[in-house]
Design brief:
Number of strands: 0
Helix content: 55-70%
InterPro entries: Peptidoglycan-bd-like, PGBD-like_sf, PGBDSf, Sel1-like, TPR-like_helical_dom_sf
Distance between the termini: 30 Å
Structural class: mainly alpha
Order of helices and strands: HHHHHHHHHHH
Oligomer: single chain
Radius of gyration: 18 Å
Protein name: Peptidoglycan binding-like domain-containing protein
Shape: globular
Strand content: under 5%
Pfam families: PG_binding_1, Sel1
Keywords: Signal
Largest sheet: none
Number of helices: 11
Organism: Rhodospirillum centenum (strain ATCC 51521 / SW)
């Protein structure tokens, strides 16, 4: 079943690649790369993201690296996998190696979500769109267990644009909603928040590490109070 899911997703991506028209390098790519190399990640994101959505392989590689390393954005291995795979499929060797390095941290569900997200980006680019909403919506929480499309369109995922304090605050709010006492939702990570996260992870049979991550917030938002 798992192999069938992956094959269907890969086939969908392959079909989309065939219709992806070649896109000239956008003017912002060089500026984005220069900003990235200078450590100006906010500017790099501004320049690279539109170009990546329009199919520029170098922009996709650098954007994937930013999500893999948490440079100027929240670390998101699933989203990193999306951009690095798109870049690797266009011949960026560095992207292939970078994708391999994060592969072990991804669940099968993460990979299926990433593959569907790639297909949506490729299709939007071929049709002249940006793929922006598709990238935001295709979070692990929106994926069904069999890899099929969710019954209803998910709300736009705002998590990827959150700073750490906003992420902690939202996690605290969700933990409190679910009955795990994380204390005042002030965005400050302390013992109460860590203990509440560990309690949630233990009850859901997840790996217990108490860490604040984008995937944790997605899981919390999709969870029902017991």
């Amino acid at each position: 079943m798992v192999n069938d899911i992956r094959m269907r997703a890969l086939l969908a991506c392959g079909i989309a690649v065939l219709v992806w028209t070649a896109t000239p390098a956008m003017a912002g790519v060089d500026e984005g790369i220069a900003a990235y190399q200078a450590g100006e990640y906010d500017q790099a994101l501004t320049e690279l993201e539109p170009a990546a959505r329009q199919g520029d392989a170098q922009a996709q590689y650098y954007l994937g690296t930013m999500y893999a390393e948490g440079q100027g954005v929240l670390r998101d291995p699933s989203l990193a996998h999306t951009w690095l795979t798109l870049a690797a499929n266009q011949g960026v060797t560095e992207a292939l190696f970078a994708k391999a390095r994060i592969g072990d941290s991804l669940s099968q569900r993460d990979i299926v979500t990433s593959l569907r997200r790639q297909n949506e980006i490729l299709t939007a680019s071929a049709e002249g769109g940006s793929g922006q909403d598709e990238v935001a919506m295709a979070s692990p929480a929106a994926a069904s267990s069999d890899g099929s499309a969710p019954a209803q369109t998910a709300a736009v995922d705002d998590i990827a644009s959150m700073g750490r304090r906003d992420l902690v605050r939202n996690i605290q709010q969700e933990l409190n909603r679910l009955g795990y006492s994380a204390g005042k939702p002030d965005g400050l990570y302390g013992p109460s928040t860590r203990s509440a996260i560990e309690g949630f992870q233990k009850d859901r049979d997840q790996s217990v590490d108490g860490e604040v991550t984008a995937d944790l917030l997605r899981a919390l938002r999709s969870a029902e109070a017991g």
